[in-house]
C-alpha cells in the first residue's frame, strides 16, 4: 500500500513538473513574442518617423521649387515691358535729366558683330538697348535670345529697313513693327513680348517721307507704341570706314554738355569698329560722370 502511494506521489510530481515546464516554456514563448512585437513596433515607429521626415523634406523641396518657379515667372514678367502713362511721360522727357545718364543704343542688328558688343557690355556690367531688325532676328535668333537673357532691352527698328517698303503708308510702318515684334517673340520664346518702343529707320524728322512718318507716329501711339531717336552718336554710319579715333571724336562732339544722352550706334555687319571702340566709349562716359541706363527704366 505504501509503495502505491509513493508511486502515485512520484507520478503526480512528474505531472506537476511537466506542467511547470510547459507553463515556463509558454511564458518564454510569450515573452519572446512580446519582445518581437515590441521590436517590430519600435521598427514600425522608426520607419514611420523616417517616412514623416522624408515626407517633410519632399514638402520643403516642393515649396522651394514652387518658390523658384514663382520667382522665375516674376523675373520673366519684369522683362516684358509695360507701357504706362509714366513711361510715355519719361519718353517725352528722355533728353532732360538733372543727373548725367547715358543710353547706349544699337541699330540694325543682330549680326556677327553683336556677340562682341555683348561680351564688352557683360564685362563692363552695362545694360544697353538694341533696336533690332526683324529680318536679322530671323537670321540670328540665338543672339537675340542672348540679348534678352542678359538683361538688355530689345526695341524695334522695323522688319526690312527698306525705306521704299516701310514708308509706303503709316499702316506699312505699323505692319513692319508688328512683323519685327513677332520675330522677336519667336526668338526669345516669350509669346506676349511687346517692346512698345520703335525707332524710325533714318530717324523721325526730315527727308521725303516726313509726312508719312509724322502720321505713322500717331498711328503707333494709338497702338501703345512710342518712338525715340537720339541726341548723340559715334558717327559710325557717317562714313564707310570710320576709325576708333573718329568715333570717339564724334561722341565727344555730340555729347557736349548734355546731361541725358541717347547715343546712336550700330551693330550691323559692317560696324566692327564700333564693337572695337565700345570699351573706350564706356570708359570716356564713366570718366565724365555718366550713369548707364536702358529703356527698362523708362518704359514702365
Structure description:
This protein is α/β, with parallel strands linked by helices. It is built from ten helices and eight strands. It has helices spanning 2-78, 85-92, 114-124, 134-139, 141-149, 163-166, 170-188, 210-222, 244-255, 272-287; strands at residues 101-107, 129-132, 153-156, 197-198, 226-227, 232-233, 260-266, 291-293. The strands form two sheets. Strands 1, 2, 3, 6, 7 and 8 form a six-stranded parallel sheet that branches. Strand 4 (197-198), helix 8 and strand 5 (226-227) form a beta-alpha-beta unit. Helix 9 packs across helix 10. The mean pLDDT is 91.
Helix fraction by DSSP (H/I, runs of at least 4): 55-70%
Major sheet:
6 strands, parallel
Seen as an oligomer or otherwise, the chain set is single chain
Q: Whole-Å distance between the termini?
A: 122 Å
Q: Structural class of the secondary elements? A: alpha/beta
How many separate helices? Answer: 10
H-E string: HHEHEHHEHHEHEEHEHE
* Overall pLDDT level: 91
Residue share in β-strands: 5-15%
Radius of gyration: 39 Å
The number of strands is 8
The outline comes out as rod-shaped
- Contiguous low-pLDDT stretches (5 residues minimum) are none
Please sum up the structure shown.
This protein is α/β, with parallel strands linked by helices and 300 residues long. It has helices at 2-78, 85-92, 114-124, 134-139, 141-149, 163-166, 170-188, 210-222, 244-255, 272-287; strands at residues 101-107, 129-132, 153-156, 197-198, 226-227, 232-233, 260-266, 291-293. The strands form two sheets. Strands 1, 2, 3, 6, 7 and 8 form a six-stranded parallel beta sheet that branches. A two-stranded parallel ribbon has the order 4-5.
Amino acid at each position: 500500500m505504501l509503495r502505491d502511494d509513493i508511486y502515485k506521489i512520484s507520478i503526480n510530481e512528474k505531472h506537476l513538473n511537466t506542467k511547470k515546464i510547459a507553463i515556463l516554456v509558454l511564458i518564454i514563448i510569450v515573452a519572446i513574442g512580446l519582445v518581437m512585437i515590441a521590436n517590430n513596433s519600435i521598427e514600425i515607429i522608426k520607419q514611420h518617423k523616417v517616412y514623416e521626415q522624408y515626407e517633410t523634406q519632399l514638402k520643403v523641396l516642393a515649396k522651394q521649387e514652387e518658390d523658384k518657379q514663382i520667382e522665375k515667372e516674376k523675373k520673366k514678367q519684369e522683362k516684358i515691358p509695360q507701357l504706362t502713362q509714366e513711361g510715355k511721360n519719361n519718353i517725352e522727357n528722355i533728353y532732360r535729366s538733372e543727373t548725367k545718364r547715358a543710353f547706349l543704343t544699337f541699330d540694325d542688328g543682330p549680326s556677327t558683330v553683336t556677340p562682341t558688343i555683348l561680351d564688352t557690355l557683360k564685362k563692363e556690367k552695362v545694360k544697353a538697348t538694341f533696336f533690332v531688325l526683324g529680318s536679322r532676328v530671323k537670321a540670328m535668333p540665338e543672339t537675340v535670345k542672348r540679348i534678352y537673357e542678359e538683361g538688355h532691352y530689345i526695341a524695334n527698328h522695323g522688319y526690312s529697313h527698306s525705306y521704299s517698303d516701310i514708308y509706303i503708308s503709316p499702316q506699312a510702318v505699323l505692319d513692319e513693327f508688328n512683323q519685327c515684334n513677332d520675330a522677336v517673340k519667336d526668338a526669345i520664346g516669350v509669346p506676349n513680348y511687346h517692346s512698345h518702343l520703335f525707332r524710325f529707320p533714318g530717324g523721325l524728322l526730315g527727308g521725303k517721307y516726313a509726312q508719312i512718318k509724322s502720321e505713322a507716329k500717331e498711328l503707333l501711339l494709338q497702338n501703345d507704341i512710342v518712338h525715340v531717336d537720339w541726341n548723340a552718336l559715334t558717327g559710325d554710319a557717317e562714313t564707310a570706314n570710320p576709325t576708333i579715333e573718329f568715333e570717339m571724336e564724334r561722341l565727344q562732339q555730340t555729347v557736349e554738355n548734355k546731361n541725358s544722352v541717347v547715343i546712336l550706334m550700330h551693330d550691323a555687319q559692317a560696324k566692327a569698329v564700333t564693337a572695337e571702340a565700345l570699351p573706350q566709349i564706356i570708359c570716356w562716359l564713366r570718366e565724365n560722370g555718366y550713369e548707364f541706363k536702358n529703356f527698362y527704366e523708362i518704359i514702365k
